[in-house]
Design a protein that fits this description.
Layout lengths: L2 H6 L6 H6 L3 H9 L5 H7 L8 H16 L2 E9 L7 E2 L17 H12 L5 E5 L9 H11 L5 E5 L5 H10 L3 E3 L7 H7 E3 L5 H5 L1 H7 L4 E4 L8 H18 L4 E5 L18 H14 L4 E4 L5 H7 L6 E3 L27 H10 L3 E3 L8
Parallel strand pairs: 1-3, 1-10, 1-11, 3-4, 4-5, 5-7, 7-8, 8-9, 9-10
Antiparallel strand pairs: 2-6
Helix pairs in contact: 3-4, 4-13, 5-13, 6-7, 7-8, 12-13
Length: 368
């Protein structure tokens, strides 16, 4: 069974009618259970469950301690290029936006990597815009060969690949994949992806599974919160993560919870997602999937990120720039979006320690 077939069992649920029939006893009973079903996960995303966030937080905190201890892994993104062939309504890199386009040379990649490595980080997330012409797999492969000199773990956040292409990058040294479906609702997906290869909903939806089949070590998925009803998107994100974790038990599965941020272009957020909403999503996911990693990026302000640490966060970005060459300032260009938490790696390391947790710079290495 593919994920889409699994998802099809739940995609036509009338959420409002389901939420209307829930009782306080249903919510409290679900929070107390050691293992919950898909529909009980949906119950924890309901408006009624929002009245029990303290109970959910205690349960999520216990689950996170049990499976991850008091640790938070640190990483930073590194933008190789911002060329893109897609016209997406919500993204600065959209081909329709008039921005400065850049692509790092191999020498500039080395300089950028050396600058990031000096902060102590050993995990890196490599990003490009979605242009096979400007940033082909061969270019990314050469970049990875350079990055291996500086980092123990290299993840990618690029356009979706075939299984064979994922194998090619894994052989070069990539061990992690981040790819967001952006919005799981197929009608809205078609509306916000106006033109370009990204309009292919199913090719993108199946990308994490193709990477799993290619033997990637970790996958990180998510929806861009703000494009649709957040309860529906969070529910489908959980279903997707649960499918991957259950089907590919040797792959480390995690979820990010990105909210729309200011960017170039005229698109405005469709659905407001509050801090409280974000917390409810995170807690419901952690109770549904205790083994699930949770990534919170610098899209969120520092106060919120600090408060979320004990509630199940397993991975945080630090010392972030969303510009091509932004760490070494070798190019002056436009960032993909405005970040909220501008703290350095040292400042975030200290903030994690102040809350009694251990900042982790390296938790994996490739043995050849």
């Amino acid at each position: 069974m593919s994920f889409y077939e699994y998802y099809s069992n739940y995609k036509n649920i009338e959420h409002e009618a389901f939420f209307k029939n829930l009782t306080e006893a249903d919510i409290l009973r679900t929070i107390s259970k050691s293992k919950i079903s898909e529909l009980e996960f949906l119950a924890l995303l309901s408006p009624l469950a929002a009245n029990y966030l303290e109970d959910m937080a205690r349960r999520a905190h216990q689950a996170s301690l049990q499976h991850f201890g008091k640790t938070v892994l640190l990483y930073t993104p590194m933008y190789l290029a911002n060329h893109c062939t897609n016209h997406c309504s919500y993204c600065t890199f959209s081909v329709a936006n008039n921005i400065s386009r850049h692509k790092l040379s191999l020498e500039e990649i080395d300089k950028e990597a050396k600058t990031i490595s000096a902060t102590g980080l050993k995990h890196i997330l490599v990003l490009t815009g979605e242009s096979r012409k400007d940033t082909p797999v061969s270019y990314i492969t050469e970049a990875v060969k350079i990055l291996k000199k500086y980092f123990d773990s290299i993840s990618i956040e690029i356009y979706p690949l075939t299984e064979e292409e994922y194998k090619q990058l894994i052989d070069a040294g990539v061990d992690g994949l981040t790819i967001y479906q952006e919005v799981y609702n197929e009608k809205i997906y078609d509306q916000v992806h106006i033109s370009g290869p990204k309009k292919d909903y199913h090719f993108r939806l199946d990308a994490p599974e193709r990477a799993c089949k290619a033997k990637i070590r970790s996958v990180n998925i998510g929806a861009l919160l703000g494009l649709n009803d957040w309860r529906k998107e969070a529910f489908t994100t959980g279903l997707h993560a649960n499918y991957l974790q259950s089907t590919y038990m040797d792959v480390e599965t995690s979820v990010s919870l990105p909210r729309l941020r200011p960017h170039k272009g005229s698109f405005e957020q469709v659905v407001h997602v509050s801090d409280k909403d974000l917390v409810q999503i995170m807690l419901a996911l952690k109770i549904f999937m205790p083994y699930l990693g949770i990534t919170i990026s610098t899209r969120e302000k520092q106060e919120l990120r600090n408060h979320l640490i004990p509630l199940g966060v397993t991975k945080m970005s630090a010392g972030v720039s969303t510009e091509v060459g932004g760490h070494s300032s070798c190019i002056d260009g436009d960032g993909q979006f405005e970040i909220s938490d501008t703290r350095s790696v040292d400042e975030i390391r200290d903030a994690i320690r102040e809350r009694g947790f251990q900042p982790v710079f390296k938790n994996w290495m490739q043995i050849t």
